[in-house]
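Progress note, sequence design subtask.
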């Protein structure tokens, strides 16, 4: 495989064939992210992509899923993206699902019919970084979209039949907007009604704008107890029809796996027990991105 730069993928794609079709992120302006700071976004050449698919056809017969890297492969023009999916269908016929990172910009650039066409040719899930449902926080972290726009784009993906996995970040709003961030994120998640929600806890990356704000005492990091309170308010404000709400990323202090709505009360009780010191939290040295 021809890999360039930092290769990231969702935790749930750990056993997938990682097919890098783009390098970097098409937005690459979020204040908390340092993944692609030195990468200029580009789509890889057809020849390289074709070689990697041929490699996977020969050596990756045990993997049943493909994940298209990097940060926003959905932004590839429809004709080229369909061609990639067609090649996967033809050369990797055992693959049952293709996944991709998406953002509001790339979802807007695809019509509903185009998304449905991608779904028909194997695109089964899109991972979208919401981070926060609070517009004040979204503006501060330079997300490049509003909560209402992301709601519409998330709903668009779901209408096309593509499963939707949303990422949110605990602590991203700082201390003064923590409760607003939690409640507004719950509001947006409820409106999107995604299949999966993954909550991460903020870990600052040296060199990023948010890290510099922290170093200059302009942005305080939440304490573990404050993170848990924020998570509690967020879950209490989130109403999903049958979605999974996970906070079991390596960055989290308290692993949580809940199906909403049925597990909501039990999950809130678990968080209350942790806040009361009855459940041990992950020590700082075990946390990771």
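Output:
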């Amino acid at each position: 495989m021809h890999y360039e730069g930092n290769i990231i993928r969702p935790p749930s794609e750990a056993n997938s064939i990682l097919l890098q079709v783009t390098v970097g992120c098409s937005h690459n302006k979020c204040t908390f992210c340092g993944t692609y700071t030195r990468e200029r976004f580009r789509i890889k050449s057809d020849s390289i992509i074709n070689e990697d698919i041929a490699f996977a056809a020969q050596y990756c017969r045990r993997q049943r899923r493909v994940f298209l890297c990097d940060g926003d492969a959905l932004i590839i023009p429809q004709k080229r993206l369909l061609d990639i999916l067609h090649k996967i269908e033809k050369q990797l016929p055992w693959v049952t699902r293709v996944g991709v990172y998406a953002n509001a910009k790339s979802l807007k650039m695809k019509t509903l019919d185009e998304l449905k066409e991608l779904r028909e040719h194997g695109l089964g899930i899109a991972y979208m970084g919401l981070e926060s449902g609070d517009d004040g926080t979204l503006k501060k972290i330079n997300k490049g979209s509003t909560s209402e726009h992301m709601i519409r784009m998330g709903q668009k993906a779901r209408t096309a039949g593509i499963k939707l996995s949303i990422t949110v970040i605990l602590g991203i709003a700082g201390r003064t907007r923590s409760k607003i961030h939690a409640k507004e994120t719950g509001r947006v998640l409820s409106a999107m009604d995604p299949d999966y929600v993954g909550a991460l806890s903020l870990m600052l990356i040296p060199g990023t704008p948010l890290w510099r704000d922290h170093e200059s005492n302009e942005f305080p990091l939440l304490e573990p107890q404050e993170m848990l309170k924020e998570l509690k308010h967020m879950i209490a404000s989130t109403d999903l029809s049958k979605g999974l709400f996970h906070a079991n990323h390596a960055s989290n202090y308290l692993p949580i796996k809940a199906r909403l709505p049925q597990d909501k009360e039990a999950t809130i009780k678990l968080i209350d027990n942790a806040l009361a010191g009855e459940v041990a939290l992950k020590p700082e040295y075990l946390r990771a991105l």
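Residues 35 and 66 are 21 Å apart (CA to CA). Work on this subtask will continue into the next period as scheduled.
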